[in-house]
Predict the structure.
Amino acid sequence: MTTPHFDVVIVGAGPTGLFLGALLVQAGFTCRVLEKRTEPTQHSRSIGIHPPALERLARVGIAEAILTQGVQVDGGFGFVNGHEIGRFSMANCAPPYPFIVSLPQFETEAILEARLFELDPKALTRGFDVVRLVDSGTEVLAQSRDGAELQAGFVVGCDGMNSVVRKGLGISYSGGDYPDTFVMGDFSDSTDFGPDAAIFLGRSGVVESFPLPGGVRRWVVRTETRVNDSEANSLTAFIQQRTGIQVDANTCSMISSFGVSHFLTSSMFKGRMVLAGDAAHIVSPIGGQGMNLGWLDAFALCEDLISIRKEPTGAFHSTFARYSKHRLKCAKKARQRSEMNMWLGQSSGFGLAQKALMHMVLSPVFKKHFANQFTMRGLE
Ligand SMILES: Cc1cc2nc3c(=O)[nH]c(=O)nc-3n(C[C@H](O)[C@H](O)[C@H](O)COP(=O)(O)OP(=O)(O)OC[C@H]3O[C@@H](n4cnc5c(N)ncnc54)[C@H](O)[C@@H]3O)c2cc1C
């Protein structure tokens, strides 16, 4: 039997791989997205979808579905030591999406998967655990754990932090853990914030609060040490103590404690294999950028693959080198922004500098600048 051949094979059907698959199929590439999980995950880790990503998701026709299912967050309240100091607004950001959409990651992935299926019902193969990739110089062979094989002109590793594509290529991935630890949980919304976010700064550490669809609210609380037995009661106690807001522990639909880290590859390609998303970079989720960064990689890579297809010689090395350089620069910028967000929320040493920055963020003079920073402008 001959091995099936595709223009591009994508390893991993997380948000990055699903979006890249939809873009490539729409652009006329033959493509397979290989996913080791047999079922979609139900974890709601990422919720924030930023304007530059929305503009690009619209290109595969799913912005409307995201807007319909998600909550449009166009601003938020800032509190310092229990006192409200102002409202942050994104209303002046560039149209057509001057807001962040809040939607649990599994719902966003379901929208992406449905669109990919509409474009090509065979594009996604679940239960295909890629264990080996061989680049012959003219094509790449992908092998699964149970011996299935596919060939492709190019392979894109969208297989997350522990990427087998990156490891197989021997590309280094350096970084480390931050000392910061958090607990997050989703509860029925007992506040008056409506579709607004709220950030509470103070000596005990930051509390962040975001609306979710269905009258639910996500709470993220910085903790001094990793809370291992994360229970709804301990999170609601932190929220009550730091914000005065009572949240009903019985309405908890998700709870998780996590540490945060940062990682970056030395390169995003080697030969005919390219990396995108968490396979290439991890930024702290505080500031909510990782998934969006993966989508911006995917969009840039699709444009590059289109330009390679037009190239009469089929040369790709310099195009992938440019892609790698630019996307790594954007990932570094995103890391710096998330580090600023974490610094703002630290408890130890919380003082004048953080307060001053919070006032600056909320001041009319700087609000457009900070709105652009928070909505991931400049990382496209
Ligand atoms: C608590 C938390 C909150 C977050 N909040 C936000 C937020 O608000 N906004 C934001 O932008 N980001 C956020 N993030 C980050 C975001 O979740 C990730 O950046 C995003 O999931 C990365 O997508 P990805 O597709 O690159 O990788 P992944 O989501 O890791 O997907 C990789 C896929 O590849 C598959 N795979 C792996 N190995 C193989 C293999 N060998 N063969 C086949 N398939 C394979 C996996 O099963 C998986 O489905 C958050 C993260 C956390 C932890």
Q: What stands out?
A: The chain is about 35% helix and 30% strand. The pocket of flavin-adenine dinucleotide is lined by residues 11-17, 34-37, 45-48, 105, 129-130, 158-160, 164, 184, 258, 277-278, 285, 288-292, 294 (CB under 6 Å). The domain at 5-72+99-175+261-348 is CATH 3.50.50.60 (FAD/NAD(P)-binding domain).
